[in-house]
Design a protein that fits this description.
The chain has six helices and four strands. The chain has a single domain, classed as Rossmann fold, CATH 3.40.50.1820. It is globular, with a radius of gyration of 15 Å. The longest helix is centred in the N-terminal third of the chain and has 26 residues.
């Protein structure tokens, strides 16, 4: 089952980077460099966002996870290993900060315990690894649209404001 999940994740990553982005850039007026590209997702889409963007830091400068599945789903019961997880994308905090202008995590305070704990564990692991990021908690909300609307409200104004 894990092999099938990894194959699906790789297929999604390939679709985004090899088909979707080139299609968008060839069809619409875009600024097609990494400093003008963001990806965010909610729930499982948050996990997919982390996987795609951390593998393609040459493509994305803004990354957001709205209740973005992390923790147990990505690392089991262990903490993030910045040297090896995400192919070492987090191994050098200074290099990561030069590439990623905003890394953003959000969670509702009333989300299911395992999900909230996983996202908090990811946040704490990023702190331990000295990876700059924003951690936002939506008060009184669950795994629901109100959480994600508040997440977007905080995340969106941060886009394309910072240049390094």
């Amino acid at each position: 089952m894990m092999k099938a999940m990894q194959e699906m994740a790789q297929a999604f990553e390939d679709d985004v980077t090899e088909a979707l982005i080139p299609f968008i850039d060839s069809t619409f007026r875009t600024v097609s460099d990494r400093d003008h590209r963001a990806m965010a997702g909610l729930s499982m889409g948050g996990m997919q966002t982390f996987q795609v963007t951390f593998d393609h830091l040459d493509t994305f400068a803004y990354i957001g996870g709205f209740s973005g599945a992390a923790g147990q789903l990505m690392f089991g019961n262990r903490a993030l290993d910045p040297k090896t997880d995400f192919h070492g994308a987090l191994a050098d905090p200074a290099a990561f900060a030069k590439k990623v202008h905003v890394l953003w995590l959000g969670v509702g305070t009333d989300e299911p315990a395992n999900m909230k704990a996983g996202i908090e564990k990811f946040h704490n692991s990023l702190n331990d690894a000295k990876i700059e990021h924003v951690f936002y908690e939506s008060p009184g909300t669950n795994h629901e649209w109100q959480t994600w609307r508040r997440d977007l409200n905080d995340f969106a104004p941060r886009l394309f404001q910072t240049t390094h």
